Amino acid sequence: MDFELSREQKLIQKMIREFTENEIAPITAETDRTSTYPAETIDKLFDCGVMGMAVPKEYGGAGADLLSAAICVEEISKQCASTGDIVATHNGLCCAPILENGTEEQKKKYLPMLTQGHKVGAFALTESNAGSDASKGTTTARLEGDKYILNGSKIFITNGYVAEVFVVFAMTDPSKGTKGISAFIVEKDFPGFSVGKHEEKLGLHGSPTAEIVFTDCEVPKENLLGQEGKGFRIAMATLDGGRIGIAAQALGIAEGAMQEAINFTKTREQFGRPIAKFQNTQFELANMHVGIEAGRLLCYKAAAIKNTGARVTLDAATAKLFCSELAMKVTTKAVQMHGGYGYTKDYPVERMMRDAKITEIYEGTSEIQRVVISGNIL
Ligand code: CAA
Questions:
Q1: 237 C-alpha to center of ligand 1: Å?
Q2: Is 232 close to ligand 1, i.e. is its CB under 6 Å away?
Q3: pLDDT band for position 320 (50/70/90)?
């Protein structure tokens, strides 16, 4: 067991830390205030190889390992959780399933678009009546000649109104339950594809969330991802990887909030001294530090296991559950330590607390993570 990052991982960490401090931190508050998709930042992240960074070089990616990819999401999310979400979704939920399940033709066509081509990717599983119970979607795909015809809609799709390539799940045989679900690669320009409602959310204001709608949407037969009926397994295995991205995002949010709490309590004076001199503050900061160290180990461990190609269901759910609950605890405490200031938009902890909440919900709620964990240990 080696707790040191490799030389390459340290270089990537340094590069992304400098990038986020210089390019992301200055615009985070404005991105949140105006609910603006950070298009320029995402273009720069494409240029420096972070979008699709774990895609092998032969398909246009940086060929980085999955721990490096998690470190990037962690570092980005320290400064801007919205940007972290866009990156984590693109990498973990769109590039990864195409890389892991695609034919050679699909990989050659779509992965260069998602790396060099500056096209953002998304993952469309959730429906209005199929959230935690993900297999109950009613979107259908009917084979007609050389095309599948998709009908239905998906909600809460991260990157929904900016993405150009979607991994979509639809029922090809409703009588077969989870074995009747298939996965497809869908482009936004396919006939019958449209974007529906844009969501207004509590947090992650820079992350574009939308409904997507299929009305007799024509998807070429060759865009079936994996085999017919294997879609649910693909969705679940993809979410195993995606959950590591959310753990990294939550970890980054917690780290950012702890740093804000340290900065504030060292300068804020009450009762004649900086509040960092009070033992209650010190103990709370110590608790944050312990949680963050533990969360980082769980997150990095899951990423390292996934990188070996081994199944990571239990470790990913464990890391995601721990880090998302940690992010909520740390950001809430950080707001408390700021007192009234923490409740205003003058301090970033207010945004961080709003951003943290979703990490306990998306890519499987904390309750679903407990279902997965208990199912794996019993
Ligand atoms: N890897 C591979 N296969 C898996 C798997 C995994 N991690 N988990 C389950 N499977 C397989 C099972 O082996 C089983 O296959 P067999 O029938 O061949 O044995 C099949 O899938 C069905 O498994 P279950 O019976 O366990 O399925 P279930 O219907 O009981 O559901 C669940 C299990 C864990 C509750 C699952 O539905 C789940 O994870 N729900 C949460 C969904 C979720 O995370 N949604 C997030 C949407 S995406 C998002 O949030 C991103 C965004 O853009 C906002």
A1: 8
A2: yes
A3: very high
